[in-house]
Amino acid sequence: MTATFVVVPQWQGSPNSRAMRLADGAAAIRADLPSTATREVSVPLESGDAQGTGIARFSSLQLIRERLREALDDIADTPIVIGGDCGVSSAAVMHAVEKRGDLALIWFDAHPDLNSPENSPSGAFGGMVLRALVDDGVVPSGRVLLAGARSWDPGEDEFAAAAGIRAFTIDELADAAALVEAVSATGAEAVYLHIDLDVLDPGEIAGLLDPEPFGLAASNLVGIIRTLRERFVLAGATIAAYAPASHAETVDDSPTILRLIGALAT
Predict the structure, then answer these.
(1) Among candidates 37, 4, 42, 5, which has minimal Cα distance to 23?
(2) How confident is the model at residue 1 (pLDDT cuts 50, 70, 90)?
(3) Residue 62: what pLDDT?
(4) Which residues sit opposite 233 in a β-bridge?
(5) Maximum Cα–Cα distance for the chain, whole Å?
(6) Which of 10, 212, 192 is nearest to 111 (CA)?
(7) Could you tell me the domains of the chain?
(8) Residue 108 near residue 33, CB atoms below 8 Å
């Protein structure tokens, strides 16, 4: 498999007051990527406004989504999108579905991202992106698998249950076989992998805006990715939510992130 990396230093989808660190995180990851296989999507400096949608900074998010779609349309091989916040997966998953309609979406994230504009505590799109993909019919809920979510906002668990979205706990991810079996049961031949780095245990990676304890070990996640790729076509992937506070953190975290990228791209 050949891959093209698309770096999207989007911060407007995050509710965190330190959200602009996400742009620094995307730049730090880009520095370790092969320049000939990497593209970057320009992100506006301004935050943008909601435009009556109930989604904070919507105007900037919409512009970035259009730019990302244009970049993805020019890529012939497998795209690996580097965020930025989790909202970058909106355009990326839509693009993958258009190319391969039979895919299953595996959402590795400490947070389910299943809020809506009506019930979101923050109005931040990063916490709504998976819900939007389901509500808009981009991916059927029966082909969505949550992996590692352990911090749920009110109403997210009820929506997941009602929609038939299966959630795997950290303990259930100790062996990739159950996840592989669940993907097989959907009938999908390809997978899109969204990886918010906060699915990892905070002891594994320092540069997180919203760390949650008791997450996955990096070696476990690498093993899961490799097992999934042995069984299914990789339609695309996202690595999101890297937000280092210092250069020292990027130095410490780089080996872990590169292991994940290696599992996705080689």
Answers:
(1) 42
(2) confident
(3) 98
(4) 190
(5) 45
(6) 212
(7) 3-265 (3.40.800.10)
(8) no
User: Could you tell me which residues come within 8 angstroms of residue 142 by beta carbon, excluding any fewer than 6 positions away?
Assistant: 164, 186
Contact, 243 vs 24, CB < 8 A? yes
Burial 30-58 (b: 16+ CB within 10 A, else e): beebeeeebbebebeeeebeeeeeebbbb
202: burial class by Cβ within 10 Å (0-12, 13-18, 19+)? Answer: middle
Residues pairing with 83 in the sheet: 8
**Shortest CA distance to 239 belongs to which of 21, 14, 26, 73?**
26
Angle at 115 between CA 80 and CA 96, to 5 degrees: 25
Six-digit token pair at 230?
């042995």
pTM equals 0.98
The pLDDT tens digits of the residues spanning 110-157 come to: 999 999 999 999 999 999 999 999 999 999 999 999 999 999 999 999
Could you report the per-residue pLDDT of 145-183, keeping only the tens digit for each?
Answer: 999 999 999 999 999 999 999 999 999 999 999 999 999
Give the Cα separation of 40 and 67 in Å (integer): 10
Residues 6 or more apart whose Cβ sits within 8 Å of residue 50: 56, 57, 58, 59, 123
Distances (CA, A) of 263 to 97, 162, 225, 229: 22, 33, 6, 9
Residues 46 and 233: beta-carbon distance below 8 Å: no
